[in-house]
Amino acid sequence: MESITLKPCPFCGGPAEFAYGGYWGQEMFKVKCGNEGKCVILPETGAFFIKQAAAVVWNRRSDNA
What we know:
single chain, 1 helix, alpha+beta, 2 strands
């Protein structure tokens, strides 16, 4: 299985992590900031049926920011 690389949090630079859950009766995936207690924003993506889709949305940002 291919490894999925997540960019760090765009607000605090902390590590990103996958969050799993059962939504609407199916397993779904989110990506969120894993720097709880230090990141005041704690961003997260919406829920996706495909893990890679959540990663693509999380990683989609300007490299110039």
